[in-house]
Design goal:
Number of strands of chain A: 10
CATH topology of chain A: Rossmann fold
Strand order of the largest sheet of chain B: 1-4
Largest sheet of chain A: 6 strands, mixed
CATH class of chain A: Alpha Beta
Structural class of chain A: alpha/beta
Oligomer: heterodimer
Strand content of chain B: under 5%
Largest sheet of chain B: 2 strands, antiparallel
Number of helices of chain A: 10
Structural class of chain B: mainly alpha
Number of domains of chain A: 1
Radius of gyration of chain A: 19 Å
Number of domains of chain B: 1
Strand content of chain A: 15-25%
Number of helices of chain B: 13
Mean pLDDT of chain A: 87
Largest interface: A-B, 30 and 19 residues
Chain lengths: 259, 311
């Protein structure tokens, strides 16, 4: 598979605090990558550097072979890297439909600059309705975004990232604040949409069940470094990861059957 | 082009006002005339407010539009009403495009105060410019419309008709713009600028564009006012004038393009009647009106209609 996102030697420090140190990640197209780590480990800093919100102190980020390190978030979004937020960033006074129509409008107004990715927006309202159904938001279509329940807000936040036709979708804790029984429902819907549009996904997550179920690769962050990188089963069983990230000294999940 | 109900209503309103013009009593023509000029300016204020921005200096463009119209008559000897409005559009468009580069970076009180500062700079310049009549200003007389001479007795009706046409076109344009993809960004910017940027649009560019549109609307209003009153002076960019536009904008609400036009008419009516019946306390009447609107109709007079529809 072709590498779609390539981060090399990323460093970021805030004063004396090192938030990212020698981060090297090459993400292949269509991969689903989980980013795990305790608070302050550098996961969100990594996302913020990829989306251009933070500029790395050193290192480069290439997207589809193009250096995007110096670009602004808006320009990076236009190239095809979109994100959702830990705290949903919605247009609270607008309806759910209008929240997504704003995105469709931006893509439509950009025209050819958005490449072939805007071709499906000939009928904006129909396109948004299809998307609302896909995300299970159809019944909220005309509700005001600011008055939605938290799980629905999360979904809308992710739909707002998807509506601008990403090639890479970055999700910052998509299931935080979502009730336990809704987590998998939410992730199932997101993953179905992602697969349909052939989008590469990187997501920050604290729930290891979610990570194990949906990712095909996991990056474990600790103190600004990546301490493990590989298949979920391998990384989640890694001794260092269990000690520093998952916070459990118990025997690895697979160990019981070997005993 | 597909027309929605509001677009039809705007065109119908324009047609009715135009046809009714000759039959209306002169006091009503005068009142409507001033209301339409004010309403056009406040359409621009409404667009800014949709972005979550309030300008305390829109007198700047009101005055620039008026002076552009006046100078066309005074200096270039081209007293044509259409050319005057055209000159106002060009001048306010150019000035706002330049000032907007700076203003589009600011929000809230900083935007309000900076816009006020610019309007007061123009006031200072005009007051010190003797060739433009300094504090007295000068008279403006529009004698032709698109090259055709207007008889003095039909001058008043012509000015009124022109105000109706320009207010209608402005409202029609603004309504279409607000319903467009670009226009929808205004509400999005008011709600969440971060998300707009992360959806790939430039907030600054959008605010700049809306600022220029709102300035041009104020310029049109100013030019119409100049030919309507027949006299212009620096008071048009003095801060109470800008404050009055804010007043009307809040009184009107931002729910529809009808709000500023209707709000301006209500404002003019209250002011005229208050001035007539209580000449010493007319400001108090306006103040109490504002107080009542803010307490009972925080969404402006327009919310009377939306409430009814929801109820």
């Amino acid at each position: 598979m072709a590498v779609i996102l390539d981060a090399r030697g990323l460093e970021k420090s805030f004063g004396a605090v090192t938030a990212a140190s020698n981060i090297n990640v090459a993400v292949e197209q269509d991969a689903v990558v989980g980013l795990i780590g305790s608070n302050g480990a550098g996961k969100t800093t990594f996302l913020n550097m990829v989306t251009g919100y933070l500029k790395p102190s050193a290192g480069t980020i290439h997207f589809e072979g193009r250096d995007i390190t110096p670009l602004a978030p808006r320009e990076i979004t236009r190239l095809g890297i979109c994100r959702s937020f830990q705290i949903p960033q919605l247009f609270n006074t607008m309806t759910v439909l209008d929240n997504l129509l704003v995105g469709v409008g931006i893509v439509a107004a950009a025209g050819s600059k958005w490449g072939a990715r805007n071709s499906a927006y000939d009928d904006p309202v129909k396109a948004v309705d299809t998307m609302l159904d896909q995300f299970g938001l159809g019944s909220y279509r005309n509700r005001q975004a600011g008055l939605l329940p938290e799980g629905t807000r999360k979904l809308l936040d992710i739909a707002m990232a998807m509506v601008v036709r990403p090639r890479i979708l970055l999700l910052d804790e998509p299931t935080s604040g979502v009730s336990a029984d809704e987590k998998f429902v939410l992730m199932d819907m997101v993953m179905a949409a992602v697969k349909e549009h052939k989008v590469t996904v990187l997501f920050v997550e604290h729930d290891m069940d979610v990570v194990a179920r949906y990712t095909d690769r996991v990056l474990a962050f600790y103190e600004g470094r990546i301490i493990a990188d590989g298949a979920p089963a391998t990384v989640l069983d890694d001794v260092e990861v269990r000690r520093f990230v998952i916070g459990s000294h118990a025997a690895p999940a697979g160990a019981a059957s070997h005993a | 082009m597909k027309l929605d109900r509001t677009s039809f209503a705007i065109l119908a309103m324009g047609a009715i006002l135009l046809i009714a013009g000759p039959a209306l009593p002169s006091w009503m023509v005068s009142m409507l005339n001033v209301s339409l000029c004010y309403g056009t300016v406040v359409l621009g204020m409404m667009l800014l407010m949709r972005n979550g921005i309030v300008s305390f200096g829109h007198g700047l463009y009101f005055c620039l539009g008026a002076y552009a119209a006046g100078l066309l008559d005074q200096m270039l000897k081209m007293p044509d009403m259409l050319l005057m409005v055209g000159a106002a559009v060009v001048v306010t468009g150019v000035v706002s495009a330049i000032l907007g580069l700076l203003l589009a970076k600011y929000r809230d009180i900083f935007f309000a105060m900076l816009s006020l500062a610019f309007s007061m700079i123009l006031y200072g310049l005009l007051v010190k410019t003797a060739s433009l009549g300094s504090t007295d200003g000068f008279n403006v007389a529009a004698k032709t419309v698109a090259g055709f001479a207007v008889a003095p007795e039909s001058q008043r009706l012509m000015v009124y008709s022109l105000a109706v046409v320009f207010a209608t076109v402005s409202a029609f344009f603004l309504h279409s713009y607000l319903a467009s993809h670009q226009g929808r960004l205004a509400g999005a910017i008011k709600d969440n600028e971060l998300r707009v940027e992360y959806m790939g649009a430039s907030v600054m560019r959008a605010v700049h564009r809306n600022y220029v549109i709102s300035a041009v609307l104020a310029g049109i209003g100013g030019a119409l006012m100049a030919v309507n009153i027949g006299h212009i002076d620096p008071e048009m960019t003095y801060w109470p004038q800008s404050g009055e536009f804010v007043f009307v904008a809040i009184l009107s609400g931002t729910g529809s393009v009808f709000a500023p036009l209707g709000g301006a008419l209500v404002f003019e009516a209250i002011r005229s009647f208050a001035y007539e019946y209580s000449p010493n306390t007319w400001q108090m009447v306006l103040g109490i009106t504002m107080l009542l609107v803010m307490i009972f109709l925080p969404g402006g007079l327009w919310s009377l209609f939306t409430r009814k529809r929801e109820g």
